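Following up on my earlier thread - several people asked me to post the actual chain instead of describing it. Fair enough. Here it is, all 165 residues.
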Amino acid sequence: MNATWSTLDTPIGPFTAIVDEDGAVIASGWTASLDELVPQIHPTLRPTELTEGDLGAVGDAIVRYHDGDVSAVDDVPVKQRSGEFLEHAWDVLRKIPAGAPVTYTEYAAKSGRPAAVRAAASACARNAAALFVPCHRVLRTDGTLGGFRWGLEAKRWLLNHESPR
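Reply from S.P.:
Thanks for posting it. Predicted structure:
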């Protein structure tokens, strides 16, 4: 399988996305390094050939999001594979609106397993499609940021960017 990648400049640093032949994001994050992204892609989705190029609608959505249209990434197709719970939990993340972060406890409940707070946190940690699957919208119960693969400064920027003015 072939995939296209590109790195775009954003206010919080370089953002790279890898998009499959169908136009779906298979990995993304605030890095310029493919070596940080490719290992996150499930083996059954991992491309055999990566070509740098124009991401089309995905690239447009990345630019529009960072320029202030926080809903620009909502309908971008994403492909991730794992077990049933993680795939469902990633779908649930996509339904958390910008500007309305939830706690890990609330996220576990929304995912249908209110006692599975650690599993919900694991879904965030194992998310390969940052921004498009907005794991940055999940906070600790005490309101602190918790973790974020791309750094707490990036998470803080994203939450501030999405907060109602």
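The chain has a mean pLDDT of 96. That should answer part of your original question.
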